[in-house]
């Protein structure tokens, strides 16, 4: 996908194959896009029958340039599912399942006309009300029945089993790394000792952060990049969004936005105030990042051992360093509120 | 060997040249982003180079005092040996974290947290300001 001299011809041949009724297919423009840390991204303007359609190609990088190892097949199936359910996300239209046509396994999606969140903010647009739109966006994909999700997605046996596995991921991330990481062990022990009230398992985006949301022309939130999606606790994506916003403001779930967000989210999902409140969101701010942290640590370890040469693998370790400081700080502040929530959930004070 | 300019100075100097001279010549967006990432990494390397071995020893002493276990010493002051030793000492701290929580002794947990906070403060010093260049 990075070979600019051959890709226009490949793209043209691909569209002639998947859309045999299109006439006079040509590729007006093909350019590599920035923004994807783990996948190759490119934009193609494809002309046919007198119209020009713009698509985004999202494909796997070469093995030695790969930061994350995730399934394009599952991602494509999920994109179709969430798109059909009415979730605001760019529609996945085609899939090169073998890589024979586009040079690598690649999903071809409609090009979104929405504005990425951070540039939207940088341009001076108002963020008033976006915390409410954020609640609606999260609730929209979490309302999809688990039975409708791709069969390849792992179904946890129970909420407790899921949480135990998730918390243990922190220990494993340290044990599997090239050096021992005591902060990860502390995080695991603390999370285990302060579990929140349970909630029904749902579709989880897995990398729900400001870089993966866009703002539509009518002010709604569009969600992109589903490659880390799974089935898990509904509060994880919320916590993860807040976690990344700490490092890359503005935080829609900051002091001004969190209560309104929680109220709208509870209204849409039926969860109660003990399950969804600023403290449980903060709990999942820490727990919710473990999937990404694991992947980033694996990338960093592989780079240290000379097994991959993707510079992002090194750069991304900076995010984990920043995160460690934030997690320690948050856990210190959360101990008492989480104890109070647990006591209230158990019927006492 | 020439010891000055120091490694800290050299790496900071390279970062400065990349930032002020090379960056303006770069045309593609992807390469510009990579250059900004390289700048952040180089500045972190610069800060680490000046203090890394001392920081590791200082933290190891705290871990030894916390756990009451012998921490030994590195086979040499060559960085690879120091870091292999640091990994062993860090494993003692990781074990102590689990033991502290299992004991339920809040004072023991707080003592662990204090060492971890100090470790994190050093890491933030290395990191400097985090800018997630290339996202969004």
TrEMBL record, chain A:
InterPro entries: ACAD10_11_N, AGP_Transferase, Aminoglycoside_PTrfase, Kinase-like_dom_sf. Pfam families: APH. Signal peptide: none annotated. Transmembrane segments: none annotated. Residues 53-265 form the Aminoglycoside phosphotransferase domain. This is Unannotated protein.
Automatic annotation (TrEMBL), chain B:
This is Unannotated protein. The lineage of its organism: unclassified sequences, metagenomes, ecological metagenomes.
